[in-house]
Write a structure and sequence with these properties.
alpha/beta; Rossmann fold; Beta-Lactamase; Alpha-Beta Plaits; 4 domains; 7-stranded mixed beta sheet; 19% strand; elongated
Length: 759
């Protein structure tokens, strides 16, 4: 028994504790029922003490604590609330002291689990029906009836109620803790985070030291976000570890030096069951919930009681689903952020990483590099997509060697790679050097090149997409310089891009409003001086002056506008040819330039001839001029189209001849009526021997393959005379006439005809 105070002292400060040795030990270990008896009747207290001495109820010893007044009980409960039952007399220092104690326990101290038995020797002061209805009591007994009912029976009923309430409360608290733990685990996005979180939450839930292992059977499911290879196979892998096991994280279970732990985890996996030990717990998570086979090992250092095991089972059920959710999230994450071919980050992942770095420590400079393999589309066309994919895979290893972690490598599009990292370690020239040597695939070697650009992460405002867009501007500049070029981003690219966009918009409006017009430059026979043809030259007049074709034609070729412009040029050329015919100059032929992009349309020649027919003209009245470079880009398609035009009576001229890189064999196979000597060679025939040699070679070549020659850009009489002496047939240039509108051309035709008649 434990007794506090004495009836004669009435002072809480004089409280004294005494108890038999076995009861005291039970009290220290917390494995007993503590009962508080509050009564000012010392005789009744002695009787109670005798009745409860050495008593065990529901498997536990009873410890009695006695107080002799309301104030003493209140002070005791304020500092010690661990009581299962309170026996309280109604009438003590006041007639309602016991009732006030009940209110204090329930309302002020908030003790809802402790069971209260109210005792009275004077039932008239507190009627039983009224008290039981208004107060939270387990029982209300007359002291005189206790002998009949038995104090032991009354206490047994109260203790059973207390035990059930405690169990219910513990379960409620445990479920609340499990709910809170599950909420925290719901933020995990990787198996690593989930595994570490499960170990820590179980330790916190059960009051254990944080020490354990999470294992998974590698390869059990395609949903895990860890990597298995030929060496690991289906061997168990440690994906979570705390305490003394941290050093073994990401290692194979078979490498764990603790044979006992290794054996327990192995038994759980092979038997697909959980194992309970005196100093540990092994929990098996089935794949139908976790989407892989997981085992959690916990070092408990003691045997868990039934309530703890029940909490662990509930928690494990939630955690099992949590592993499954993380597995699904990991799979979705890979689908969203991993390149399917190379298994490296994709464009979305790159944008996410850019944002992460830009939001992080700003004192460290970071740089982004783009690497684009030159003519990768041509490689695919020539050798097939399978080889192209193998080339990309072969490129990945040298990229990783050049830019090891923490550098970030991603595949943005088919052959476009992104490298991201510290500015000191990431460099566009270093990226380009990756392809200086051959790529070996099986027994074959492939030599490739790449264009590269670089940009600092803080170079522009805006989000990651804006930064990547700006970097692409630098890459376009590199590509414009030719294969293997590297050009760093310059803010001027943004301005030029904006100007190009504005120019495209204005060009579309000009085309729609018929503001583009065809002007005509005469072509003169150098022997007779007669006008034999004209070249239609497209002009774009604006308030500020003419826009150079060298500026707007390349932009049109990069858009779909070139096709509409081509149709307009042919239409105006046909209209001009009809007008020349009405004016009596039907023998003057008109030629127009055709862009390489126009030949992409397989029905180009049919469309041109249809326009001729609508104007009442034969194809023989229209010439097509293509540059040497245009002809070489898609030789078979271009040659076939030009051959069709010639077969139907039209004529063909190869423009800017001598400036390209075509072979003589291609020239022999290319259907052509005229070779046009580029103006850069014509300009040098008066002073530069090399220019003269080139022009002689072109004229001699044309003579041998029975093709006429037209010299462009003739500006002096000396140039015209020299060209005529070399056997050049025709010429055009400012010496004869500038490009002019159709009415001026008709007038020019009249003057030329008159001069020819006089000559």
């Amino acid at each position: 028994m434990t007794r506090y105070g004495a009836p004669e002292s009435g002072q809480a400060d004089d409280l004294v504790q005494f108890a038999p040795e076995d009861t005291a030990r039970a009290l220290d270990e917390g494995d007993c029922w503590r009962v508080l008896a509050v009564d000012d009747d010392e005789g009744f207290q002695r009787s109670t003490e005798l009745a409860l001495r050495n008593l065990r109820l529901l498997g536990r010893p009873l410890v009695l604590v006695q107080a002799y007044c309301l104030a003493e009980a209140a002070r005791l409960l304020a500092r010690d609330r661990d009581f299962a039952v309170v026996l309280a007399d109604v009438v003590m220092e006041t007639d309602d002291a016991g009732l006030r104690l009940v209110k204090g326990i329930r309302e002020m101290l908030g003790l809802s689990e402790v069971r209260i038995i109210l005792l009275t020797g004077q039932p008239g002061f507190a009627p039983i029906d009224e008290v039981m209805q208004n107060y939270d009591l387990s029982d209300y007994c007359l002291k005189s009836e206790l002998a009949h009912r038995g104090l032991r029976n009354v206490l047994t009923a109260a203790l059973r109620g207390y035990r059930d309430l405690r169990a219910l409360s513990a379960a409620r608290k445990g479920l609340q803790l499990i709910l809170e733990a599950s909420n925290r685990l719901s933020t995990a996005r990787t198996i690593r985070d989930m595994s570490q979180g499960v170990l820590s939450e179980i330790a916190s839930l059960l009051g254990l030291r944080d020490e354990g292992i999470v294992c998974v059977r590698c390869g059990a499911s395609p949903l895990e976000n860890f990597t298995c290879n030929a060496e690991t196979g289906a061997k168990p892998l440690i994906v979570g570890a705390t305490g003394r096991y941290v050093a073994h994280l990401d290692g194979l279970l078979e490498a764990l030096p603790n044979e006992s732990v290794r054996s327990l985890i192995g038994q759980a996996l092979s038997g697909r069951l959980s194992i309970e030990c005196s100093d540990s717990q092994v929990i098996y998570f089935p794949p139908h919930e976790a989407l892989a086979e997981y085992v959690v090992y916990l070092a408990t250092d003691r045997r868990l009681d039934d309530s703890e095991l029940e909490l662990l089972r509930v928690f494990a059920a939630n955690a099992s689903k949590g592993f499954g959710n993380v597995g699904l999230i990991s799979r979705l994450d890979r689908l969203a952020y991993e390149d399917e071919l190379l298994r490296i980050p994709n464009r979305s992942a790159a944008l996410r990483e850019i944002e992460r770095l830009r939001l992080g420590e700003r004192s460290r400079p970071y740089k982004l590099v783009l690497l684009d393999v030159d003519n990768f589309a041509g490689l695919n066309d020539a050798f097939g997509v399978k080889l192209g994919n193998r080339v990309l895979k072969a490129l990945l290893d040298p990229l990783r060697q050049a830019f090891p972690p923490p550098a970030f490598i991603a595949r943005i599009t088919a052959d476009l790679f992104l490298i991201l990292g510290d500015a000191a370690a990431v460099d566009m020239h270093k990226a380009a050097s990756v392809l200086t040597g051959p790529l070996r695939i099986d027994a074959a070697s492939y030599r490739l090149s790449a264009c590269c650009t670089e940009i600092a992460l803080d170079a522009i405002d805006g989000d990651a997409s804006e930064l990547l867009r700006a970097a692409r501007g630098g890459l376009r500049a590199a590509k414009a310089c030719g294969p293997g070029s590297a050009v760093a981003y310059d803010e001027a690219f943004e301005r030029l891009a904006a100007e190009r966009f504005e120019l495209v918009s204005d060009l579309a409006e000009a085309l729609e409003g018929s503001h583009l017009e065809l002007m005509f430059q005469p072509q003169i026979d150098l022997k007779s001086g007669r006008l034999v043809g004209v070249e239609g030259l497209l002009r774009w007049p604006r308030e500020s002056g003419f826009v150079s074709p060298a500026r707007f034609i390349p932009i049109a070729e990069q858009s779909a506008l070139i096709h509409s412009i081509g149709e307009m040029v042919v239409r105006q050329a046909c209209e001009a040819s009809r007008e020349l015919e009405r004016s009596g100059f039907g023998e003057v032929l008109i030629s127009v330039n055709v862009s390489a992009r126009q030949f992409v349309v397989p029905t180009l020649i049919e469309s041109i001839h249809e326009q001729c027919a609508q104007s009442g003209l034969t194809p023989g009245r229209l010439g097509l001029e293509v540059t040497e470079t245009t002809a070489m880009q898609s030789f078979e398609e271009v040659a076939a189209a030009l051959r069709t035009h010639r077969e139907r009576g039209g004529f063909v001229a190869i423009d800017d001849f001598g400036t390209g890189m075509s072979s003589l064999q291609y020239l022999l196979d290319l259907p052509a009526d005229h070779l046009k000597i580029d103006r850069t060679f014509v300009a040098g025939v008066e002073t530069d021997e090399l220019s003269r040699q080139i022009v002689r070679l072109i004229i001699d070549l044309a003579r041998r393959i029975d093709v006429e020659v037209i010299a462009e850009g003739v500006e002096t009489q000396a140039q015209a005379d020299w060209l005529r002496r070399q056997g050049c047939h025709m010429a055009q240039g400012w010496l004869f006439a500038k490009a002019m509108k159709l009415p001026e051309l008709i007038e020019f035709c009249r003057r030329n005809a008159q001069e020819a008649t006089r000559g």
